[in-house]
Amino acid sequence: MYQITAKGARAPVETAWDALAWADPSPAGAVDAKEDGRGSWRLDAFAETEEEAEACVVIIEESAPELTARIEQVIEQDWVTLSLEGLPPVKAGPFIVAGSHALARQSPGKIAVLIEAGPAFGTGHHGTTLGCLLALDEVRRSRKVGKVLDLGTGSGVLAIAALKAGATSAIGTDIDLDSVRVANENARKNHVNGFTAMHVTGANTPRIRQGGPYDTVFANILMRPLIGLAPDIAALTAPGGTIILSGLLHHQAPPVRNAFASRGLDFQKRIREDGWSTLVFRKPD
């Protein structure tokens, strides 16, 4: 595997992120952008082959000439073992997300979610996951979490946290089969009931419709899919329900906000964490 890295100002890094994330097909298997210090941002992409890594460099430097990208070969590692050696716990309000090594040392009274590092997205260490957990904390303090729909569930961390915070049931969906398998395994490891992860594209499927309407809906994915899913998410949300959206760089939040507001949903707040935005909406009663 190869890691491609470029550092610079926020604007060119975000431009390059957009170009890589939306190339069809993209040579990058994963792309991330975050603040890397005062006034500095960092773009990281991962590719399976050297040829794909070089293609990433071309896209980065053509879309953002101010950036210089470098390629580094990454030695394949056992990510679960790596997590046991030192992945730090993540705290978001009352929630703590960590591997078994760290949870054993934590103080009581926290809502503990056991997630080991692995092939599915969502250990709690990403700004998008952190923002969603902070939004979930506000939901549980103001009303019952109720039925949950988690679109793009990844490791299942958000759905599992919601169940531990009092949700009555949770459906997680993902387009990646490995993520579905990992999410179901994580639910068993966390001893939560009422969770099902499904291999589904989109949100308008019979199984999802039959389980609704949902009191709390998570969609931690990407800007364009979020905009496209706005009508379905609005229809699947129960009156008075909360919608928590993430996977957004700061400059991507306004078009997503507009797409959901145009569906009659009330914007509640925006949470900013590590260069990423989480948007919270409420469906009117």
Automatic annotation (TrEMBL):
One of its GO terms (molecular function) is protein methyltransferase activity. It comes from the Bacteria. It comes from Hyphomonas atlantica. InterPro entries: Ribosomal_L11_MeTrfase_PrmA, Ribosomal_PrmA_MeTrfase, SAM-dependent_MTases_sf. Belongs to the methyltransferase superfamily. PrmA family. GO terms for cellular component: cytoplasm; ribosome. Methylates ribosomal protein L11. This is Ribosomal protein L11 methyltransferase. Keywords: Cytoplasm, Methyltransferase, Ribonucleoprotein, Ribosomal protein, S-adenosyl-L-methionine, Transferase. SUPFAM superfamilies: S-adenosyl-L-methionine-dependent methyltransferases.
